[in-house]
């Protein structure tokens, strides 16, 4: 059984330490566990390795850990909209391992499934292949990629029950189910936590509670990264 706790700081108390590897759900600013990331910032831990699709934007999401100089290495798919991330990478101040997005997803899934490595054609003949073992299958060259097992997973869910079962909402699902299984400790922030005795229907469970260590309810505002609107068209009478 997972534990429902009162605050992000309480959920991470005794868990965080300098130099740990943290896998974080989200894509851009969608499905990001903002309250838990803020709690990591406030804890002051340093020397972190962050595994995430990207590092948020300046001043939002994982960008706050960069601004507070708490991150030394990043495994991510792209620099995205974070100007500080790009500048620190180009200046050589940040160790960055770029991982193709599908490969990153599969490395997290493999880590959670106990698979130490797998082969993929993605990245063959590019800088992604440097220093990696290769093998040939059916006349095609493949790269060996290692599964990722982090020390801690930070997850955002739409709904959790008190057994730790999780349901995600639409595209906020993104990397969260993969991240949740890829670490021995998974801390979840949920927008809604069901009352005692209520449980998600089995067909609605996206991540089973066996993977979840603790849950905290949060009503933190979730910013929109890109807002696109068009003028309302006049309707003829």
Which tags fit this structure?
transferase, transferase activity, Glutaconate Coenzyme A-transferase, globular, 12 strands, 3-oxoacid_CoA-transf_A, CoA transferase subunit A, 3-stranded antiparallel sheet
Protein architecture, described:
- The protein starts with a strand and ends in a 20-residue tail after the last strand.
- Strands 1, 2, 3, 4, 5, 9, 10, 11 and 12 form a nine-stranded mixed beta sheet that branches.
- With 237 residues, the protein is an alpha/beta fold.
- It is 20% helix and 25% strand.
- Strand 4, helix 4 and strand 5 form a beta-alpha-beta unit.
- It contains six helices and twelve strands.
- It has a single domain, classed as Glutaconate Coenzyme A-transferase (3-Layer(aba) Sandwich).
- The model has no long low-confidence stretch (mean pLDDT 93).
- GO terms for molecular function: transferase activity.
- Belongs to the 3-oxoacid CoA-transferase subunit A family.
- The portion of residues forming beta strands comes to 15-25%
Order of helices and strands: EHEHEHEHEHEEEEEHEE
Instruction: Kindly give the count of domains.
Output: 1
Distance between the termini: 60 Å
Provide the helix percentage.
Answer: 10-25%
- Give me the secondary-structure category: alpha/beta
Q: Specify the CATH homologous superfamily.
A: Glutaconate Coenzyme A-transferase
The CATH class is identified as Alpha Beta
CATH architecture: 3-Layer(aba) Sandwich
| Unreliable residue stretches | none
Overall shape = globular
Question: What's the average pLDDT?
Answer: 93
